[in-house]
């Protein structure tokens, strides 16, 4: 007879778990036979001792089959999705869904909440009054068929074992484990019935993977497991040594999304990452034959307004307002206090401790320190200036949105402490590092 503590002991001591033991663990997450302390202990044992490739495959498949596995026989075009390992200011999923859906792919996206210092796609959508991130599976499938896209939170039907494990990882310092990340991501994505998947693996001081070796290892792990499961998968390693875009914080990132899709403002780095991921999605689904054809389709989706219109329709059909593009603040709450963060000297922004910026937002209430915690969607930063920006003393390098003056002042000090300055010109890191298939 298997016992939770004995299975934990095997991994704690560096042993390789059998398929039976892994299935027992995943079943225990789902049915409660493993309590929170035991799930956290197993997560820590996996974090410290790792998993062999076959263990990761068995773990992913067990998580995938802990709930419903979708199929889409009624759809006549490719089904594709994207997943990011998480970053600060990463709102790319919204742009990609709108663009790729406008180009003819189906994109059923099952997204996550904030994890550690990184923001969550679902949390950002819930900044919009009325938006329903938890439709039923039949409702989700009907939305995808009707619109081509739908972004929802993880449901109790799809990979329920991961939903519980995800929350426990967030508060037990076990977020950065390659086996746990691989299993978490792919259990949901493989359960979604995809033809193709593009992974955005972040690397840098604001990412779970802070060095290139770890990022490559994770990218290769995901590509190996997903391709082996019959889903055409490409992993693109992108930079997270600074905030992506010019905002970080739930409502503020929705505002930047609206500005991006309507063409009011497109931050260059955010645009470059979005385009590269969209190109891979269109090529891997056969919608475009090469990068040039993909770029032409992407530009048409943006320039014609088709992507913006599709995103607006999705928001409205899922309970949000009909006028998000025209008046986004009508359906979101603003922070009570705004405060400029100003440069303390002349020079150039030379570096950014992106993780600390993310943690500052968590500390303001914009993320979670407990897995059942309600969050403040209003707080965060905008007007963020990137690495390499030339500044004079007193120039605005970011703006804080806080719940009160004291919080805004504290967050401004923390933001400034996360920056470094140089008297000499500084070159920003590249947006794209490597592509792994």
Automatic annotation (TrEMBL):
Gene Ontology molecular function: any one: 1,4-alpha-oligoglucan phosphorylase activity
EC number(s) given by UniProt: 2.4.2.4
Biological process, per Gene Ontology: pyrimidine nucleobase metabolic process; thymidine metabolic process
Keywords: Glycosyltransferase, Transferase
Stated role: The enzymes which catalyze the reversible phosphorolysis of pyrimidine nucleosides are involved in the degradation of these compounds and in their utilization as carbon and energy sources, or in the rescue of pyrimidine bases for nucleotide synthesis.
HAMAP family per the UniProt record, alphabetical: Thymid_phosp (MF_01628)
Subunit text: Homodimer.
NCBIfam families reported in the protein's UniProt record: PRK05820.1 (NF004490), T_phosphoryl (TIGR02643), Y_phosphoryl (TIGR02644)
This protein's name: Thymidine phosphorylase
Gene: deoA
